[in-house]
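#structure-requests
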Amino acid sequence: MATVLKAVIEKSGVPAKDVEDVQVGTVLAAGGGATEAKMALFAAGYPDSVSLATTNRQCSSGLQAFVNIAGAIRNGQIKIGVAAGVESMSQHGFQNGVGKLNPTMMKVPAAADCLIPMGITSENVAEAYKISRQVQDEFSANSQLKASQAQKKGLFKDEIVPVVTVTKDADGKETPITVSADDGIRVTDAAGLGQLKPAFKKDGSTTAGNSSQVSDGAAAVLVMKRSEAEKRGLPILGKFISTAVVGVPPKVMGIGPAYAIPSALEKAGLSVNDIDVYEINEAFASQAYYSIQKVGIPMEKVNPLGGAIALGHPLGCTGARMISTLLHQLRRTKQRYGVVSMCIGTGMGMAAVFEAE
Protein backbone atom coordinates (compact mmCIF):
# COMPACT_ATOMS: atom_id res chain seq x y z
CA MET A 1 0.00 0.00 0.00
CA ALA A 2 2.81 2.40 0.86
CA THR A 3 4.43 1.70 -2.51
CA VAL A 4 1.39 2.66 -4.59
CA LEU A 5 0.44 5.62 -2.40
CA LYS A 6 3.94 7.00 -2.92
CA ALA A 7 3.97 6.21 -6.64
CA VAL A 8 0.67 7.93 -7.43
CA ILE A 9 2.11 11.16 -6.02
CA GLU A 10 5.52 10.80 -7.65
CA LYS A 11 4.08 9.97 -11.09
CA SER A 12 1.62 12.86 -11.01
CA GLY A 13 3.90 15.43 -9.42
CA VAL A 14 1.14 16.45 -7.00
CA PRO A 15 2.61 17.26 -3.56
CA ALA A 16 1.36 14.85 -0.90
CA LYS A 17 0.27 17.78 1.26
CA ASP A 18 -2.22 18.82 -1.44
CA VAL A 19 -4.16 15.54 -1.15
CA GLU A 20 -7.14 16.29 1.06
CA ASP A 21 -8.46 12.80 1.70
CA VAL A 22 -7.51 9.19 1.06
CA GLN A 23 -9.98 6.30 1.01
CA VAL A 24 -8.67 2.73 1.10
CA GLY A 25 -10.77 -0.32 0.30
CA THR A 26 -9.80 -3.31 2.43
CA VAL A 27 -11.70 -6.37 3.60
CA LEU A 28 -9.86 -8.92 5.72
CA ALA A 29 -7.59 -6.88 8.00
CA ALA A 30 -8.62 -6.57 11.64
CA GLY A 31 -10.22 -3.32 12.73
CA GLY A 32 -11.17 -2.47 9.18
CA GLY A 33 -7.51 -2.14 8.24
CA ALA A 34 -7.50 1.49 9.38
CA THR A 35 -4.24 1.25 11.31
CA GLU A 36 -2.34 -0.46 8.51
CA ALA A 37 -3.69 1.99 5.91
CA LYS A 38 -2.69 5.03 7.99
CA MET A 39 0.75 3.53 8.61
CA ALA A 40 1.15 3.05 4.86
CA LEU A 41 0.15 6.67 4.31
CA PHE A 42 2.93 7.89 6.59
CA ALA A 43 5.41 5.40 5.13
CA ALA A 44 4.61 6.82 1.69
CA GLY A 45 5.62 10.30 2.86
CA TYR A 46 2.22 11.94 3.31
CA PRO A 47 2.03 14.53 6.11
CA ASP A 48 -0.24 14.07 9.11
CA SER A 49 -2.57 16.76 7.72
CA VAL A 50 -3.90 14.27 5.13
CA SER A 51 -7.02 12.46 6.33
CA LEU A 52 -7.79 8.80 5.68
CA ALA A 53 -10.64 6.33 5.97
CA THR A 54 -11.01 2.68 5.06
CA THR A 55 -14.11 1.19 3.51
CA ASN A 56 -15.37 -2.37 3.20
CA ARG A 57 -17.95 -3.42 0.64
CA GLN A 58 -16.18 -6.75 0.22
CA CYS A 59 -15.06 -7.42 -3.35
CA SER A 60 -16.04 -3.93 -4.51
CA SER A 61 -14.17 -2.09 -1.73
CA GLY A 62 -11.60 -0.54 -4.08
CA LEU A 63 -14.34 0.72 -6.38
CA GLN A 64 -16.36 1.94 -3.40
CA ALA A 65 -13.32 3.89 -2.17
CA PHE A 66 -13.17 5.57 -5.58
CA VAL A 67 -16.89 6.39 -5.54
CA ASN A 68 -16.51 7.87 -2.04
CA ILE A 69 -13.68 10.15 -3.15
CA ALA A 70 -15.45 11.11 -6.38
CA GLY A 71 -18.60 11.88 -4.42
CA ALA A 72 -16.71 14.14 -2.03
CA ILE A 73 -15.28 16.02 -5.02
CA ARG A 74 -18.70 16.35 -6.67
CA ASN A 75 -20.18 17.61 -3.39
CA GLY A 76 -17.49 20.27 -3.09
CA GLN A 77 -15.98 18.82 0.07
CA ILE A 78 -12.55 18.29 -1.49
CA LYS A 79 -10.74 19.02 -4.74
CA ILE A 80 -8.07 16.30 -4.67
CA GLY A 81 -8.22 12.78 -3.25
CA VAL A 82 -6.69 9.35 -3.61
CA ALA A 83 -8.83 6.23 -3.97
CA ALA A 84 -6.96 3.04 -3.15
CA GLY A 85 -7.36 -0.59 -2.21
CA VAL A 86 -5.20 -3.24 -0.59
CA GLU A 87 -5.39 -6.85 0.49
CA SER A 88 -2.80 -9.25 1.78
CA MET A 89 -4.73 -12.49 1.57
CA SER A 90 -1.59 -14.50 2.30
CA GLN A 91 -1.31 -12.75 5.68
CA HIS A 92 -4.94 -12.44 6.71
CA GLY A 93 -6.48 -15.55 5.15
CA PHE A 94 -10.24 -15.74 5.12
CA GLN A 95 -11.35 -14.53 8.52
CA ASN A 96 -14.81 -15.24 9.85
CA GLY A 97 -15.77 -12.25 11.93
CA VAL A 98 -19.43 -13.17 12.33
CA GLY A 99 -19.08 -14.45 15.89
CA LYS A 100 -21.94 -16.15 17.72
CA LEU A 101 -25.11 -15.89 15.66
CA ASN A 102 -28.56 -15.18 16.99
CA PRO A 103 -30.62 -18.38 16.45
CA THR A 104 -33.57 -16.25 15.34
CA MET A 105 -31.49 -14.77 12.54
CA MET A 106 -30.55 -18.22 11.31
CA LYS A 107 -34.24 -18.95 10.78
CA VAL A 108 -34.33 -16.26 8.08
CA PRO A 109 -33.20 -18.06 4.89
CA ALA A 110 -31.52 -15.07 3.27
CA ALA A 111 -29.66 -14.26 6.49
CA ALA A 112 -28.39 -17.83 6.78
CA ASP A 113 -27.37 -17.76 3.11
CA CYS A 114 -24.94 -14.93 3.86
CA LEU A 115 -22.69 -17.57 5.47
CA ILE A 116 -22.49 -19.78 2.38
CA PRO A 117 -18.82 -20.10 1.35
CA MET A 118 -18.02 -18.20 -1.83
CA GLY A 119 -17.00 -21.39 -3.66
CA ILE A 120 -20.40 -22.89 -2.98
CA THR A 121 -22.14 -19.78 -4.32
CA SER A 122 -20.19 -20.39 -7.53
CA GLU A 123 -21.51 -23.92 -7.62
CA ASN A 124 -25.02 -22.57 -7.04
CA VAL A 125 -24.70 -20.22 -10.02
CA ALA A 126 -23.34 -22.98 -12.24
CA GLU A 127 -26.19 -25.31 -11.30
CA ALA A 128 -28.99 -22.73 -11.40
CA TYR A 129 -28.00 -21.26 -14.76
CA LYS A 130 -26.50 -24.40 -16.34
CA ILE A 131 -22.93 -23.15 -16.76
CA SER A 132 -20.99 -26.29 -17.66
CA ARG A 133 -17.52 -27.23 -16.43
CA GLN A 134 -16.30 -27.09 -20.04
CA VAL A 135 -17.54 -23.51 -20.46
CA GLN A 136 -15.92 -22.46 -17.19
CA ASP A 137 -12.59 -24.01 -18.09
CA GLU A 138 -12.58 -22.51 -21.59
CA PHE A 139 -13.37 -19.08 -20.13
CA SER A 140 -10.54 -19.46 -17.60
CA ALA A 141 -7.98 -20.65 -20.14
CA ASN A 142 -8.84 -17.63 -22.29
CA SER A 143 -8.29 -15.30 -19.35
CA GLN A 144 -4.84 -16.79 -18.76
CA LEU A 145 -3.95 -16.53 -22.45
CA LYS A 146 -5.01 -12.89 -22.73
CA ALA A 147 -3.08 -11.93 -19.59
CA SER A 148 0.02 -13.76 -20.77
CA GLN A 149 -0.06 -12.09 -24.17
CA ALA A 150 -0.61 -8.67 -22.61
CA GLN A 151 2.27 -9.17 -20.21
CA LYS A 152 4.61 -10.24 -23.01
CA LYS A 153 3.65 -7.13 -25.00
CA GLY A 154 4.37 -4.91 -21.98
CA LEU A 155 0.79 -3.65 -21.80
CA PHE A 156 0.77 -3.59 -17.99
CA LYS A 157 3.92 -1.49 -17.62
CA ASP A 158 2.11 1.86 -17.40
CA GLU A 159 -0.03 0.71 -14.50
CA ILE A 160 2.44 -1.38 -12.47
CA VAL A 161 4.88 -0.08 -9.87
CA PRO A 162 7.75 -2.41 -8.82
CA VAL A 163 7.52 -3.49 -5.19
CA VAL A 164 10.62 -4.19 -3.13
CA THR A 165 10.06 -6.87 -0.53
CA VAL A 166 11.76 -9.74 1.28
CA THR A 167 11.24 -13.48 0.86
CA LYS A 168 12.03 -16.03 3.54
CA ASP A 169 12.94 -19.65 2.81
CA ALA A 170 12.27 -22.74 4.93
CA ASP A 171 15.45 -22.11 6.91
CA GLY A 172 14.46 -18.54 7.71
CA LYS A 173 16.99 -16.97 5.33
CA GLU A 174 15.74 -13.64 4.02
CA THR A 175 16.38 -12.46 0.48
CA PRO A 176 15.41 -9.02 -0.85
CA ILE A 177 13.57 -9.12 -4.18
CA THR A 178 11.85 -6.69 -6.53
CA VAL A 179 8.47 -7.73 -7.91
CA SER A 180 7.75 -5.92 -11.16
CA ALA A 181 5.17 -8.19 -12.80
CA ASP A 182 2.16 -10.25 -11.76
CA ASP A 183 3.37 -13.78 -11.10
CA GLY A 184 0.09 -15.65 -11.04
CA ILE A 185 -0.39 -15.93 -14.80
CA ARG A 186 -0.27 -19.59 -15.88
CA VAL A 187 -0.96 -20.31 -19.53
CA THR A 188 -2.93 -23.50 -19.92
CA ASP A 189 -5.80 -24.87 -21.96
CA ALA A 190 -9.27 -26.10 -21.16
CA ALA A 191 -8.15 -29.72 -21.40
CA GLY A 192 -5.47 -29.14 -18.79
CA LEU A 193 -7.88 -27.31 -16.49
CA GLY A 194 -10.30 -30.17 -16.94
CA GLN A 195 -7.92 -32.45 -15.04
CA LEU A 196 -8.33 -30.47 -11.81
CA LYS A 197 -10.59 -31.76 -9.08
CA PRO A 198 -13.55 -29.73 -7.78
CA ALA A 199 -12.36 -27.50 -4.93
CA PHE A 200 -15.53 -26.88 -2.98
CA LYS A 201 -18.08 -29.60 -3.66
CA LYS A 202 -17.86 -33.25 -4.59
CA ASP A 203 -18.90 -33.65 -8.22
CA GLY A 204 -18.94 -29.86 -8.53
CA SER A 205 -17.53 -27.76 -11.37
CA THR A 206 -15.66 -24.99 -9.54
CA THR A 207 -11.92 -25.67 -9.29
CA ALA A 208 -8.69 -23.87 -8.45
CA GLY A 209 -8.26 -23.34 -12.18
CA ASN A 210 -11.55 -21.60 -12.89
CA SER A 211 -11.58 -19.44 -9.76
CA SER A 212 -9.72 -16.24 -8.93
CA GLN A 213 -6.41 -16.64 -7.16
CA VAL A 214 -5.61 -16.02 -3.50
CA SER A 215 -3.23 -13.10 -3.91
CA ASP A 216 -1.77 -9.92 -2.44
CA GLY A 217 -1.97 -6.52 -4.10
CA ALA A 218 -2.54 -2.79 -3.82
CA ALA A 219 -3.63 -0.05 -6.19
CA ALA A 220 -4.18 3.71 -6.01
CA VAL A 221 -5.96 6.20 -8.26
CA LEU A 222 -5.52 9.99 -8.12
CA VAL A 223 -8.86 11.76 -8.45
CA MET A 224 -9.55 15.48 -8.72
CA LYS A 225 -11.90 18.17 -9.91
CA ARG A 226 -11.39 18.88 -13.62
CA SER A 227 -10.56 22.55 -13.07
CA GLU A 228 -7.90 21.51 -10.57
CA ALA A 229 -6.30 19.07 -12.99
CA GLU A 230 -6.31 21.66 -15.76
CA LYS A 231 -4.82 24.32 -13.47
CA ARG A 232 -1.97 21.94 -12.64
CA GLY A 233 -1.46 20.94 -16.26
CA LEU A 234 -2.07 17.26 -15.50
CA PRO A 235 -3.11 14.71 -18.13
CA ILE A 236 -6.66 13.46 -17.65
CA LEU A 237 -7.05 9.74 -18.25
CA GLY A 238 -10.79 9.65 -17.93
CA LYS A 239 -14.02 10.93 -16.44
CA PHE A 240 -16.27 9.16 -13.94
CA ILE A 241 -19.85 9.09 -15.22
CA SER A 242 -22.09 6.88 -13.09
CA THR A 243 -22.23 4.02 -10.61
CA ALA A 244 -24.76 1.54 -9.25
CA VAL A 245 -24.93 -1.01 -6.45
CA VAL A 246 -27.69 -3.62 -6.45
CA GLY A 247 -28.70 -6.47 -4.19
CA VAL A 248 -29.15 -10.08 -5.31
CA PRO A 249 -29.83 -13.34 -3.44
CA PRO A 250 -26.79 -14.21 -1.27
CA LYS A 251 -26.72 -17.84 -2.37
CA VAL A 252 -26.04 -16.73 -5.97
CA MET A 253 -24.12 -13.56 -5.12
CA GLY A 254 -22.00 -13.95 -8.27
CA ILE A 255 -24.82 -12.76 -10.55
CA GLY A 256 -24.45 -9.22 -9.18
CA PRO A 257 -22.82 -7.69 -12.30
CA ALA A 258 -25.74 -8.85 -14.43
CA TYR A 259 -27.93 -6.37 -12.56
CA ALA A 260 -25.46 -3.66 -11.57
CA ILE A 261 -24.18 -3.07 -15.11
CA PRO A 262 -27.61 -2.29 -16.66
CA SER A 263 -28.40 0.01 -13.74
CA ALA A 264 -25.14 1.97 -14.12
CA LEU A 265 -25.63 2.17 -17.90
CA GLU A 266 -29.16 3.49 -17.48
CA LYS A 267 -27.92 6.23 -15.16
CA ALA A 268 -25.25 7.13 -17.71
CA GLY A 269 -27.75 7.22 -20.57
CA LEU A 270 -25.77 4.57 -22.44
CA SER A 271 -26.56 1.17 -23.91
CA VAL A 272 -24.65 -2.11 -23.66
CA ASN A 273 -23.31 -1.62 -27.17
CA ASP A 274 -22.03 1.89 -26.43
CA ILE A 275 -19.36 0.47 -24.13
CA ASP A 276 -16.01 -0.36 -25.69
CA VAL A 277 -14.35 -2.26 -22.82
CA TYR A 278 -15.83 -4.13 -19.86
CA GLU A 279 -13.59 -4.98 -16.91
CA ILE A 280 -15.65 -7.61 -15.08
CA ASN A 281 -14.05 -9.23 -12.06
CA GLU A 282 -13.59 -12.96 -12.46
CA ALA A 283 -14.27 -14.09 -8.92
CA PHE A 284 -15.32 -17.38 -10.51
CA ALA A 285 -15.70 -18.30 -14.15
CA SER A 286 -19.28 -19.44 -13.53
CA GLN A 287 -20.54 -16.07 -12.34
CA ALA A 288 -18.49 -13.94 -14.72
CA TYR A 289 -19.63 -15.95 -17.74
CA TYR A 290 -23.27 -15.88 -16.62
CA SER A 291 -23.21 -12.11 -16.09
CA ILE A 292 -21.66 -11.49 -19.51
CA GLN A 293 -24.29 -13.65 -21.22
CA LYS A 294 -27.18 -12.21 -19.21
CA VAL A 295 -26.29 -8.61 -20.09
CA GLY A 296 -25.52 -9.56 -23.72
CA ILE A 297 -21.95 -8.31 -23.82
CA PRO A 298 -19.79 -9.41 -26.77
CA MET A 299 -17.04 -11.59 -25.30
CA GLU A 300 -14.31 -9.73 -27.21
CA LYS A 301 -15.10 -6.59 -25.19
CA VAL A 302 -14.57 -8.29 -21.83
CA ASN A 303 -11.26 -8.22 -19.95
CA PRO A 304 -9.06 -7.78 -23.03
CA LEU A 305 -5.91 -8.12 -20.89
CA GLY A 306 -7.23 -11.05 -18.86
CA GLY A 307 -9.01 -11.01 -15.54
CA ALA A 308 -8.78 -12.13 -11.93
CA ILE A 309 -8.49 -15.82 -12.80
CA ALA A 310 -5.08 -14.95 -14.25
CA LEU A 311 -4.16 -11.76 -12.40
CA GLY A 312 -5.61 -12.46 -8.97
CA HIS A 313 -8.32 -10.90 -6.83
CA PRO A 314 -6.87 -9.23 -3.71
CA LEU A 315 -10.31 -8.31 -2.41
CA GLY A 316 -9.97 -4.66 -1.40
CA CYS A 317 -7.51 -3.86 -4.17
CA THR A 318 -9.46 -5.18 -7.15
CA GLY A 319 -11.78 -2.23 -7.86
CA ALA A 320 -8.96 0.33 -7.92
CA ARG A 321 -6.77 -1.99 -10.01
CA MET A 322 -9.55 -2.48 -12.55
CA ILE A 323 -10.04 1.28 -12.94
CA SER A 324 -6.35 1.66 -13.71
CA THR A 325 -6.37 -1.24 -16.18
CA LEU A 326 -9.51 0.09 -17.89
CA LEU A 327 -8.36 3.70 -18.32
CA HIS A 328 -4.93 2.72 -19.65
CA GLN A 329 -6.54 0.29 -22.10
CA LEU A 330 -9.02 2.90 -23.36
CA ARG A 331 -6.23 5.43 -23.89
CA ARG A 332 -4.01 2.85 -25.61
CA THR A 333 -6.75 1.81 -28.04
CA LYS A 334 -8.28 5.30 -28.40
CA GLN A 335 -11.68 3.94 -27.35
CA ARG A 336 -14.23 5.98 -25.43
CA TYR A 337 -16.40 4.21 -22.85
CA GLY A 338 -15.60 1.56 -20.25
CA VAL A 339 -17.29 -0.26 -17.37
CA VAL A 340 -15.86 -1.75 -14.19
CA SER A 341 -18.03 -4.29 -12.40
CA MET A 342 -17.86 -7.08 -9.84
CA CYS A 343 -20.00 -9.36 -7.70
CA ILE A 344 -19.98 -8.90 -3.93
CA GLY A 345 -20.16 -11.46 -1.13
CA THR A 346 -23.47 -11.58 0.82
CA GLY A 347 -25.35 -10.80 -2.40
CA MET A 348 -24.63 -7.59 -4.32
CA GLY A 349 -23.17 -6.29 -7.53
CA MET A 350 -21.47 -2.97 -8.28
CA ALA A 351 -20.62 -1.23 -11.52
CA ALA A 352 -19.22 2.11 -12.66
CA VAL A 353 -19.06 3.79 -16.06
CA PHE A 354 -16.05 5.81 -17.24
CA GLU A 355 -15.30 7.92 -20.30
CA ALA A 356 -11.76 8.14 -21.62
CA GLU A 357 -10.14 11.44 -22.56
